[in-house]
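Worked example 4.2. Below are the chains of a multi-component assembly; read each line carefully before continuing.
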Amino acid sequence: MDTTDLLEIAERERAARTPRRLRCCTAAGCLSQNGQALKAALIEAVKTAGLTDSVEVVGVGCMGLCSQGPLVQVDPDGPLYEKVTPDQAPAIVAALNEPSAPADDVRVGDPTHPFFAKQVPVVLQNSGKINPERIESYIEVGGYQALCTAVREMQPLEVCELITASGLRGRGGAGYPTGLKWSTVAKTESDRKFVVCNADEGDPGAFMDRSVLESDPHRIIEGMAIAAYAVGASQGFVYVRGEYPLAISRLKTAISQARRLGVLGAGVFETRFDFRVDIRIGAGAFVCGEETALMRSIEGHRGTPRPRPPFPAAKGLWGCPTLINNVETLANIPAIVANGPEWFAGLGTGKSAGTKVFALAGKIKNTGLIEVPMGTTLRTIVEEMGGGVPGGGSVKAVQTGGPSGGCIPAEHLDTPVDYESLAQLGSIMGSGGMIVMDESDNMVDVARFFMEFCMDESCGKCVPCRAGTVQIHHLLTKLRSGKGTARDLDVLRELCEMVKQTSLCGLGQSAPNPVLSTLRYFHNEYDTLLNDPMTPATKPLQTSTETR
Amino acid sequence: MAVKTLTIDGKHVSARDDQTILQTAREAGIRIPTLCDLPGVGPLGACRLCLVEVTGVPKLLPACVTVVQEGMEVQTNTERLRRYRLMIVELLFAERNHVCSVCVANNHCELQDRAMEIGMTHSRFAYQFPKLDVDTTHGRFGIDHNRCILCSRCVRVCDEIEGAHTWDVSGRGANARVITDMNVPWGEAASCTSCGKCVQACPTGAIFRIGATVAELEKDRTQLSFIVNARENKQWLG
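Applying the procedure described above to all two chains together yields the following structure tokens:
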């Protein structure tokens, strides 16, 4: 197996293709809206029309615009049909030979809409285009070429340097430089090393990783294999949450296909590099997305975090150096190796290179997945691409970073989305969940919702997170019911600071963020709830004056 | 073995390079409050009482797991740390039903000791009053979950010293409980050797000897470190 063989497979795949194809979304979003029946109806309609030789119905991954699903797209360069029902299938097939739009009230999407036009797909390059259940489909669009180049033509440290040069930072939320992490693991001496893909995506409203795994699973395997070659690991684990059965099944299929083709296993691409990937399924604990808890879970223990240092790069799985990267981070790798680090660095802004996938949810017209270059403003994402609040209301705030992030008020919508700018506003980039809120949303409720989430998901190991989140939630409930006093607000603020400073892991350290950020920007909503509204809180938050 | 020098609260101290800040401070006679720490078993870093400030490190570090470094400047008793410690103890008292006056461990309780040491007069937080069980099925020992602070000392002594691993933790967050075997009543836990090390290890009155009356539950922690010292260093010194 080498580059020539890959090209041959791609060539065969292209030759076997029918002139026209109907791409039918088979990711979880569209499947939940009767996508499976639609696909069957399309196959049936093609058969009835006698077009089986010239038209193929292909199940593909997510096309992004989940709110308008199920989606069907005619390939090549055909229209995108939205909210398609199975009984519209014959009309769509009939329209294949007519230039005019099909009858039967089939809705045609606008490919020039900013939702599509402003996207720069890198991670989602193949999503919605290839069949995620066939390795040949991935190879056809250039898949596994980057891995082949890396293992056959590059030294491991060269690969690390390439990633460092690209400026890629971790897409799981914290934004740690990926190249630095790789070279740390690469330089740590050990007989055994591991590579872990963190697919325990758990933030409410976030579904980027699920979509990538469902739409392009081979991309993750390729990214992991390149990472493993670079750091000197021969075993990889994908830690997927159990709530993603479709992602798990596609990943399993992909792994066995890759193994059969010699892309995984002993002697990857006929070199001396061995790499094996196994799946570990999470049992529903959010905290297992925290890297030390995730490792405990993979080892078969109760998933609780431990203090760092030692970091996983030094002492990870079974005490061995371990590289842990998020799904989206790994999905960037093949493109960086294929196109070069300069290309990637040129995509974003100075300190935040590349693109970022966001899951748009909440009070927004076009819910779904988008991928934009770093530095795109929140306004472009929410108002232009997302289409703003349905029914024409105004955006009040945008929540980024899930339960670890904060609410960014409408007056800061012109902020470019990059790690530093969001941190400055008291939020974080996070994994990519973006929840839009309008004027009807109460910010104390928002804070309370996320605190309830953290309270339920706290593992219970350290006292500040276990008992502190319970008390913060209690205080927010008391305030919301109009029974709170200025004194409660003081205690709330003090407690938030303490939980942030003293908790053991990232979950507890970031749990107060939604409360702190709403206190910062929407202090008046807390004040009006006070039982004694005439008495101002004794210690107003310093930042509240400068932002209002 | 190399030796490091550092300062703790301005005092110059030396330590072996594998020692933690907590061990070094103890040797130097500097007191850092702890709860989950138990000499003889592995550190956990969970109670967060031993957090200290280290110059140049933005985060607070748990003294029980942080290994010393050359030139480290450690502060163990700043105003901020005292404020946080007070809140941690207040949170613990509000979390479950800690009523000292009717507790077997009254006057022999580390939670009570820490509260007095830190200067807690009352808890500012809402008492949760959870409805929790008392398991006395064992016959000799009992566990009162109302008094448990989830320090996991019982889990660690049972696993690391006795080697039975009867105890573990189940559930999450406020619903976390220490359990015996696969969450069966203690009396039915087949792996329990009835050695009583968990009783010695428990910092509060949560695990107790059946029959002991209020304020009678004196514990002998030296028994545990004696066993560990004997086993690991082959020194049978009392």
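Take a moment to check your reading of the output against the notes. The longest strand of chain B covers residues 3-8. The interface with chain A takes residues 44-48, 51, 59-60, 62, 65-66, 83-84, 87-88, 91-92, 94-95, 124-126, 128, 149-150, 152, 168-169, 171-176 of chain B (CB under 8 Å).
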